[in-house]
Amino acid sequence: MSNELKPMIDRLLETINAAGYSIVTSQDGSWCLYNLGGEVKMYLLQAEDRFVVSRAERSGEEEVFFASQSIVDIELALLHCFTNLFRRREHQPFLVATPVPISPRKAAPGFTVSHSPDGTWLLQSTAGAPERTGRMITLVEFSYYAHMRPYDLWKAMNLQEDSPFQPLT
């Protein structure tokens, strides 16, 4: 499973760098993606049967950003995140798939977002897809592009072809 991380990072490298982030890997196989100055760090690792992306700001604690058993899910969530970070650097608006403010009730049809028993947020699909956990906003947004392939998400966010996203103004 862990041998899937490097090819995914390689596919995302240009987008991650364009967003102003750098990457280092540790001996345990985890990855750290950090912005200039290290104010914001994202960690990517394999934990048992799941891939976990966590996020920490210099003054805050590390929190789960997004987790799934599927490496494609992780790639989609990171692609969405880093494309929007790139857009911010280019003074372009963020792209969102649901009206703001985002709430659990705004998940895409066929999905529910709720608190799990351990207090984290949980995204479930009526189609029986694997459970995903993470930040509520991340999960609601993810529900709108969960069905996409990474290249199609990239096109929707960069070229606005058949895009479900709207600029956040």
Could you characterize what this model shows?
- There is one protein chain.
- This protein is of the alpha+beta class and 169 residues long.
- The protein is built from 4 helices and 10 strands.
- The chain has helices at residues 5-18, 71-89, 136-145, 150-158; strands at residues 21-25, 31-35, 40-47, 50-57, 63-68, 95-96, 111-115, 121-125, 132-134, 166-167.
- It has an 8-stranded antiparallel sheet with strand order 1-2-3-4-5-9-8-7, covered by helices on one side. A two-stranded antiparallel sheet has the order 6-10.
- Helix 1 (5-18) runs parallel beside helix 2 (71-89).
- The N and C termini lie far apart (40 Å).
- The mean pLDDT is 90.
Q: Bin the helical content.
A: 25-40%
**Strand order of the biggest β-sheet:** 1-2-3-4-5-9-8-7
Annotation, overall tally of beta strands: 10
The run of helices and strands is HEEEEEHEEEEHHE
| Distance linking N and C termini | 40 Å
- How many independent structural domains? 1
Instruction: Summarize the main sheet.
Output: 8 strands, antiparallel
